[in-house]
Input
Amino acid sequence: MKDLHDLVDEVIEQIKRDLSDTGDVTAIVELLLSIPRDDLEAFLPNSCEPKICQTCNGSGEGMHEGTTCPTCKGRGEY
Output
């Protein structure tokens, strides 16, 4: 049985061949449609809704007075 990483590498190479040889994206679309929607959505960054920083709970404040959160750099989100 192939290692998962090897299998993924083979799929990526096949996608590259399909795009460069024929420009046919049918197999790629079919592959993506076979992936559960939640998994596809989790793969994409959600640019519409920033995530609240878990380190400072969205306050942007550091642990000590007058400091900013080192994770989000004081923004409260990322």
In short: The mean pLDDT is 85. The chain has two domains: 4-43, 47-78. The radius of gyration is 20 Å. The helical segments are 4-21, 26-33, 37-43.
